[in-house]
Design brief:
Shape: globular
Radius of gyration: 18 Å
Largest sheet: 8 strands, antiparallel
Length: 276
């Protein structure tokens, strides 16, 4: 296996249609435990944000998000923080936008989500299954803020996957660290053959309901770099002729198309709408 820091400037490609894939299930919680169950995995886990949306007075669902480090050109966002997550975590079973959603972070007061900005042509479990959430700025910096990669070509990401490059992922049940180290894999591992899935890669990280939107990241020159966000699980034949079905995670990479769309949407955000 290669470490990403040594190969960020060069990189191959594999694809195909999953035998069966789905967006990750959302974790349910009871509102009565809301105040006592605020930790994101381990108390030391500062690498993800938790999104909680109430469905009724007593129940709700949760997912994850990665906090972005915004560039100075986004003057309209100087009073706000922005995180990226999956779109399906913010849509209910009837296709309606979830309401009463808050952001929970390690060592921070909860933040109400002020604005949800969906990807163009949003569709669950697709390359357009992502959304931006905007909320009042955190006062301190003890939560990881992710930068975007210095490379954005799909081909470079796919070569990293071909090399089974180590990445960091959110804590999973049974793991003691705030992050787990795992590998990104060619998308053919998860069954993604069709070209319409360009922008998705597989991974072997342990993921559970409630981890939709978790950052897939790497440390590069001391910075936390967001490579993509976890979308869900897929089932595919590891060997088409003899091996049993195997489950893999898959994630949306932060490529040039996604970067351009994210930047455009953030520049269009009118922060004055929410100023008091």
């Amino acid at each position: 296996m290669k470490h990403i820091g040594s190969i960020v400037l060069w990189l191959c490609t594999f694809i195909y249609m999953p035998s069966y894939s789905y967006a990750s299930e959302l974790k349910s919680f009871t509102a009565i435990n809301y105040k006592t169950d605020r930790k994101i995995g381990d108390v030391k886990d500062i690498n993800t944000l938790k999104i909680r949306c109430l469905e009724t007075k007593t129940r709700g669902v949760e997912s994850r998000a990665g906090l972005l480090s915004l560039k100075t050109e986004f003057k309209n966002l100087e009073h706000y923080d922005v995180a990226i997550t999956t779109g399906h975590g913010l849509i209910d079973k009837t296709g309606q936008l979830r309401e009463n959603c808050t952001v929970i972070a390690h060592g921070q007061d909860d933040r109400d989500i002020l604005k949800i900005i969906f990807a163009n042509d949003y569709m669950s479990a697709s390359t357009n299954d992502w959304a931006l959430i905007v909320f009042p700025k955190f006062e301190s910096v003890n939560v990881v803020r992710y930068t975007t990669p210095s490379f954005f070509d799909i081909e470079k990401f796919e070569t990293l996957a071909d090399l089974n490059t180590d990445v960091l992922f959110a804590q999973a049940k049974g793991l003691f660290a705030g992050h787990q180290t795992c590998q990104i894999l060619p998308r053919e591992k998860g069954g993604f053959y069709d070209e319409k899935y360009a922008g998705i890669l597989s991974h072997n990280c342990k993921a559970f309901p409630g981890q939709s939107g978790s950052p897939v990241s790497s440390k590069i020159e001391g910075q936390d770099v967001l490579l993509g966000i976890h979308l869900g699980q897929s089932y595919a034949l590891h060997n088409r002729t003899s091996s049993p079905t195997k489950q893999y995670g898959y994630f949306r990479i932060f490529d040039d198309r996604m970067l351009g769309e994210v930047s455009k949407k953030l520049l269009e955000f009118d922060g004055n709408t929410y100023r008091r």
